[in-house]
Amino acid sequence: MDTMQDQTITAFGVIAREQLPWLYSLARRLAGDRAEDVVQDCLLRAFKGFPQLRDPQAAPAWFRQILINCANDHHRKRLRAPDEQPLDETSDQTLFRRIVDEDPLPYSDSVHLDFLHSFTDDHVWAVLDRLDPKYRVPLVLVHMEGISTADVSRMLGIPLNTVLSWLHRGRRLFETEMWNYAEEHDLVCQEQGVTS
Amino acid sequence: MIDCTSAVRRLWNFIELDLPEAERDEMDKHLAFCRRCCGEVEFAEELRVLLKDSAGPELPPDAAVRLGEFIDSIEGE
User: Fold this and answer.
1) Quick one: CA dihedral A74, A80, A83, A89, positive or negative?
2) Partner-chain residue, chosen from B50, B66, B67, that has the shortest CB–CB distance to A116
3) A125 at the B interface (CB within 8 A)?
4) 3 state DSSP class of B2
5) CB of A119 within 8 A of CB of A190?
6) Which of B9, B46, B67 sits opposite A36 (nearest CB)?
7) Is the pLDDT of residue A165 over 50?
8) How far is residue A155's CA from residue A26's CA, in Å, rounded to a whole number?
9) Helices of type H across A130-186
10) Quick check: helix, strand or coil at residue B73?
11) What's the mean pLDDT in A149-159?
12) For the segment A47-73, what is each residue's pLDDT rounded down to a tens digit?
C-alpha cells in the first residue's frame, strides 16, 4: 500500500503536469527566453510547498502566484533599476496619431484596425519581449491575464501607484515598439503586397 | 476644459471605467468635440482586445519532455 507521502508525490505529479502548458505560456510572456528556467523554479517551489495546498481546485491560482514570484526573482535586479527606456511624458504622440500622420496603409479604409490586425500572436510576443520586465510584467498580468491592478500590486509586493505608473509607461512603450517592429519586419508592406 | 495631452494620459483609465467621476466628466466633455481623441479611444479599445485575445505561446514538445523529466526528478528525490 502506498504511504501518505507516496500519494502526495503522485498527486503533485498529476496536478503539476496538468498545469504545465499554461504555466509555460505565462512564463514565456513574463520572462521571455528564460521561461523554462522560471517554470522549473516554480515546480521546485510548488513541490516543496505542496502539502500546504489543501484544495486541488485552487491549484491553478496557487501555481500562478508561485510562477509570478519566480519570474520576479529572475527580474529582481531589473525591477529595482531606474527607468532606462525613455518616454516623453509631455508628448501626446501616440501610436494612433503616428498612424494618422504616416498613413502606412494608404489604400486602407480602416488603417488603424488593419495595422493592429497585421500583428499575429507571434508578433505580439516579440513586441512584449522588447519591453523591460518592469513594464512587461504588469502589462501581461493586467491586460492579458485579466488581474486587477490592486491584485498585481499585492502579487508583486509593489505599491499600487508604482504598478499604475509602470502600466502607463508599459502601454506607451508597447505602442512605440509595435510601430518599430512593424517597420523593421515590413508588416505594413506585406499587408499591401508590396515588396520591400 | 482638458486638452488632448491630458485626455490621452487618461485614455486607458477611461476605457477601463477606472476614472473618478469628475475626471470622467472632463473626458466626456473633451470627447464631445474632439474627433481625434474619439479615434484614440476606439483605437485603445481595439488594442486592449488584441492584448486580451492574444493566445499565449504553446509549450514546445521538447520543453514538455524536459519539464516532465524535471517533475520526475523532483518526485524521485
Assistant:
1) positive
2) B50
3) yes
4) coil
5) no
6) B67
7) yes
8) 15
9) 133-139, 149-156, 160-184
10) helix
11) 92
12) 999 888 888 889 999 999 999 999 988
Residue contacts between A and B (CB atoms, under 8 Å): 94
Calculate how close chain B gets to A168, using CA atoms only, in Å.
8
Quote the minimal CA–CA distance from A74 to chain B in Å: 18
Q: Are A123 and A185 in contact (CB under 8 A)?
A: yes
Asked if A178 and A95 touch (Cβ cutoff 8 Å), the reply is: yes
A9 in contact with chain B, both atoms CB, cutoff 8 A: yes
Residues of chain A numbered 66-95 and touching chain B (CB < 8 Å): 90-92, 94-95
Place of cell 514546445: B60
Rounded to whole angstroms, the Cα distance separating B70 from A96 reads: 46
Q: Do B5 and A90 touch (CB under 8 A)?
A: yes
| Cα–Cα dist A91/A111, whole Å | 23
Query: What cell was used for A164?
Result: 499604475
pLDDT at A77 over 70: no
A97 and B36 within 8 Å at the Cβ level: the answer is yes
Q: What is the pLDDT of residues A103-134, one digit of tens each?
A: 777 777 788 889 999 999 999 999 999 999 99
A1 has pLDDT over 60: no
- Give the distance from residue B11's alpha carbon to the nearest chain A alpha carbon, in angstroms: 10
Entry pTM: 0.85
- Cell numbers describing residue B69: 523529466
The ipTM value here is 0.86
Please list every residue in chain A whose beta carbon sits closer than 8 Å to the beta carbon of residue B42.
Answer: 112
C-alpha cell at A192: 499591401
Cα–Cα nearest to A114, from A194, A196, A189, A195? A189
